[in-house]
Design goal:
Elements: E1 3-6, E2 12-15, E3 18-21, H1 28-34, H2 46-49, E4 58-63, H3 69-72, E5 75-80, E6 86-91, E7 94-100, E8 106-109, E9 116-121, H4 124-135, E10 156-158, E11 161-163, E12 173-178, E13 181-193, E14 196-207, E15 214-220, E16 223-228, E17 233-240, E18 257-265, E19 280-288, E20 293-296, E21 299-300, E22 303-304, E23 307-310, E24 313-315, E25 317-322, H5 334-346, E26 351-354, H6 363-372, E27 375-379, H7 393-408, E28 414-418, H8 423-429, H9 432-436, H10 443-457, E29 463-464, E30 484-486, H11 489-492, E31 506-509, H12 518-524, H13 535-539, H14 546-555, H15 565-588, E32 596-599, H16 622-630, E33 634-641, E34 644-651, E35 657-667, E36 672-682, E37 686-691, E38 703-709, E39 712-716, E40 731-736, E41 739-744, E42 748-753, E43 763-764, E44 769-771, E45 776-782, H17 789-797, E46 799-800
Parallel strand pairs: 25-26, 25-32, 26-27, 27-28, 28-29, 30-31
Antiparallel strand pairs: 1-12, 2-3, 2-4, 4-9, 5-8, 5-12, 6-7, 6-9, 10-11, 13-14, 14-17, 15-16, 15-18, 18-19, 20-23, 21-22, 23-24, 33-34, 34-37, 35-36, 35-38, 38-39, 40-41, 41-45, 42-44, 42-46, 43-45
Helix pairs in contact: 5-6, 7-10, 15-16
Bound molecules: beta-D-mannopyranose.
Beta-D-mannopyranose (BMA) binds near residues 158, 159, 384, 422 and 611.
């Protein structure tokens, strides 16, 4: 049987005079940080001070373990699941291999070799610059040369990320000792038809003994099958009756089935293969799920749709975009993946798009998504640049695509492969076409190589050439009426009320910035007097004119809180939540024409002002809590349309939703000006739209409308906050076990407890809440023990709400 020995021990990192203990998996920056050689690049402006690290060469060294396993076997392989990025591997000074792709794994035959293993990393920066020099410069959204080396693009900096170009053995390394044969590759094709699950395992083996008779045996769901290996290939088919279907969360359960595949020495026909021989030679185990997925892209009366259909059920995708959770991805543990994705699921998210400036996500990521019922859309790693198609890049792209498509095949959560992020759009709209003057830019990947690889390796999954993409060069790539759309005009130029001007078929990106939680800023910028434009705040704001856009977005609604950082911080977070709400409420109520919203972005990779709902320290911004309302199965919303106000009852549940919505037209002082009950009935997975009777429509800045049904509420204020003559907010705060209650005496709009101001460990269980006079809300707080009067006062001072004139 194949024996594996992990290579985790005894590593040291060398650079010129330095030698320090190193971690594998890991990377140079985290080793230097642990040894105290560099300051934490996440804090203050340290990022700039460690820029040299990415420009140097680094060597990782260890002794290969003197194991007797090598003597018991015919063959020994040195296996790296991931090397970041440009490396030369040596054993006792003898070259074993070279690498230049972070997105691949590597296997080297080291049979009979022992001694000192060294992995010498060159600078990815230098490699990228050299390739750029040879192939010629191509257009790009960012200045760094990330398109010339197959490495996580955003490690070169992004409009939310630091430039920290690291190197290292970023995924596990091991020795594998084996004899006769091993399982080299397994492509599990999993399908299901009328309750009958089918698993087809297309297997490749590698042999050290050409003639040995080999058998594969597989089991899944109590079914067993065998196949004889002819040469190096075999296919094992298993039909599993009455399988339970895997569903995205909210639609059903996530049953997972273990698949076990064993390679045996012996004949398939024998009743007990392997007897008298060495028996089992190698094994492969994964978990799969049975479900179907289609992407309905048929033309219709509105253009060209983009609707996910899982197990025959048409879905509105409640999505978020995912970026690497740490700019040093080797630091993202299984536990951390699980925690972040659990946060997404708890917010009602059912689709996660792994964005193309990052990585092909890890097994830990996909295992969590399989278990949580999160659908995954995986971009191939190409983003915001023209990518050359010449060597050495072309061969690397093909190899990484073939490997990763097969690696991720077992996971039922994976439902879509996407060619790239914004490159088809960039070619058409960002002047690339002219500047390229006929040079290669990646089209051959997105419309040729990658769809071919997906079709050949994994025909069970759909592929789309890009995001955005309208399906054809005959149309603009970002045409909202066709396919996927990125909606960035709002953040870049106009008010978020303008989201209502379009009903794209699928909104794959849209979003709004806000600063991270206060405690996150305090940790990252210790000692700094915080101001929107203070040096640390600006360093941790990477977007072009980011603060300008925040400010222009803010003054459309609120008076600019000059000289009051805390109020600026609160109001910009409110504005972020309101902007994203404006988009989702409009688009969800436009189902089935619009079939999904993917918020830019769920997470951050360091502490920064960004579009994220969860900040770089894992703290939820008010937007996060707002997503829980926006992505719930049932959403009630009031929509201002050209012909008047409309009430939308969005019902994504499997049951009909009917009830009487109580509408109240209110004055901001608290008087009920008009009242009515509106019977609403929304069938399963559908939207009911009802015009609001004219006498209920609020008029002028003093009035608003509130709609209530089944504990859900929608509010409509016809004027911008700075025009509304709010009363001075009055409310009482009381400590209760596990949190606080707030009782309003006046209208209190967008009340927020910033629990992290009470204790950096404290978390509130809700975000923005608007209270009508007389209403009470309970806010649960974890990680904070409140005892007496002083704590009540502290809670009071951590409460923010909209105030008249500010
Ligand atoms: C989108 C993304 C990212 C970027 C974000 C915010 O287009 O694809 O490239 O970070 O916008 O600008």
């Amino acid at each position: 049987m194949l024996e594996a020995s992990p290579l985790t021990e005894g590593w040291i990192l060398r650079h010129e005079g330095i030698a320090l203990p190193a971690r594998v998996p890991g990377c140079v920056h985290t080793d230097l940080l642990a040894a105290g050689v560099i300051e934490d690049p996440f804090l203050g402006r340290n990022e700039t001070g460690v820029a040299w690290v990415g420009r140097r060469e680094w060597t990782y060294e260890t002794d290969l373990p003197a194991v007797s396993a090598a003597e018991r076997h015919e063959q020994t392989d040195l296996v790296f699941e991931g090397l970041d990025t440009v490396a030369e591997i040596l054993l006792d000074g003898r070259p074993v291999g070279r690498t230049r792709n972070m997105h691949r794994s590597y296997r080297f035959d080291v049979t009979g070799m022992t001694g000192r293993l060294s992995v010498r990393f060159g600078s990815a920066h230098a490699e990228a610059e050299a390739v750029r020099g040879r192939l010629g410069e191509r257009p790009s959204a960012y200045p760094e040369p990330y398109a010339y080396v197959r490495k996580m693009a955003c490690s070169f900096g992004w409009d939310w990320g630091p430039t920290l170009v690291t190197a290292g053995i970023w995924r596990p390394a091991r020795l594998e000792h084996w004899s006769t044969a091993r399982i080299a590759r397994v492509r599990p094709l999993v399908t299901v038809e009328e309750g009958m699950g089918r698993v087809e395992l297309a297997v490749e083996v590698e042999r050290s003994r050409v003639e040995a008779p080999l058998t594969l045996e597989a089991t899944v769901g109590g079914v067993r099958a065998r196949a004889r290996v002819d040469g190096t290939r075999a296919t094992v088919r298993l039909d599993v009756p009455d399988v339970d279907l895997w569903w995205p969360r909210g639609y059903g359960e996530q049953p997972l089935y273990d698949v076990e595949l064993t390679l045996l020495h012996g004949e398939a026909s024998a009743s007990a293969p392997g007897r008298g021989e060495a028996g089992a030679l190698d094994a492969w185990r994964r978990r799969i799920g049975f479900r179907t997925v289609e992407l309905d892209r048929r033309p219709d009366a509105h253009g060209t749709g983009f609707t996910f259909v899982v197990n025959g059920e048409r879905l509105f995708a409640r999505g978020v975009n995912w970026i690497p959770d740490d700019v040093f991805p080797s630091r993202v543990s299984r536990v951390r993946y699980r925690e972040r994705l659990r946060q997404a699921a708890d917010a009602g998210v059912d689709l996660v798009r792994v964005w193309g400036g990052g990585i092909y996500e890890s097994e830990d990521f996909y295992d969590a998504c399989d278990e949580l019922g999160l659908l995954v859309w995986q971009d191939f790693p190409f983003a915001c640049a023209a990518y050359p198609e010449e060597q050495p890049l072309r061969g690397e792209v093909e190899a990484e695509a073939r490997e990763n498509v097969v690696r991720l095949m077992p996971h039922p959560s994976l439902v879509l492969w996407n060619g790239n992020n914004e490159n088809l759009w960039g070619f058409r709209d960002w002047d690339w076409e002219r500047r390229l003057a006929g040079e290669s830019w990646g089209e051959g990947y997105y419309l040729g190589l990658l769809p071919r690889v997906v079709a050949e390796s994994d025909p069970t999954r759909p592929y789309t050439a890009g995001s955005p993409w309208s399906g054809s060069w005959d149309r603009h790539p970002n045409d909202p009426a066709h396919g996927t759309h990125h909606s960035w005009e709002v953040w870049n130029q106009v008010d978020y009320a303008d989201y209502r001007l379009h009903v794209p078929r699928f909104v794959a990106e849209f979003g709004w910035q806000a600063p991270p939680a206060y405690a996150t800023l305090r940790r990252a910028l210790a000692g700094e007097e915080l101001a929107p434009g203070s040096p640390g705040m600006l360093h941790h704001q990477k977007a072009e004119d980011g603060n300008g856009k925040l400010e222009r977005g803010l003054v459309r609604h609120f008076a600019l809180p000059e000289g009051d950082f805390d109020r600026w911080h609160y109001l910009t977070q409110v504005n972020q939540a309101r902007a994203v709400a404006a988009g989702i409420e409009h688009w969800r109520s436009s189902w089935p024409v619009c079939a999904g919203t993917v918020v830019w972005q769920l997470n951050d990779c360091w502490p920064v002002t960004s579009w994220a709902a969860i900040d770089g320290d894992g703290r939820e911004k008010p937007l996060y809590h707002e997503l829980r309302r926006l992505y719930a199965d049932r959403l009630l919303t009031l929509r201002a349309r050209d012909d008047g106000l409309v009430l939308a009852a969005v019902n994504q549940s499997a049951d009909e939703w009917s009830g009487t919505v109580v509408l109240r037209r209110m004055s901001v002082e608290g008087a009920v000006l008009a009242r009515a009950g509106l019977d609403v009935s929304a069938g399963r997975r559908s939207v009911a739209l009802l015009p609001v009777p004219g006498e209920l429509e609020p008029v002028g800045p003093k009035e608003y409308l509130v709609a209530d049904v089944d504990g859900l509420r929608a509010l409509h204020f016809p004027a911008a906050d700075r025009e509304i003559p709010y009363p001075r907010p009055e409310f009482e705060v009381a400590l209760v076990p596990g949190g606080i209650t707030v009782t309003a005496h006046t209208l209190v709009r967008d009340l927020l407890l910033q629990a992290d101001r009470l204790d950096p460990r404290a978390r509130a269980d809700r975000g923005l809440v608007t209270l009508l006079p007389g209403e009470t809300v309970t806010i649960g707080v974890r990680g904070w023990e409140a005892r007496g009067e002083r704590d009540a006062a502290a809670a009071r001072s951590a409460l923010y709400c909209v105030e008249p004139g500010r």
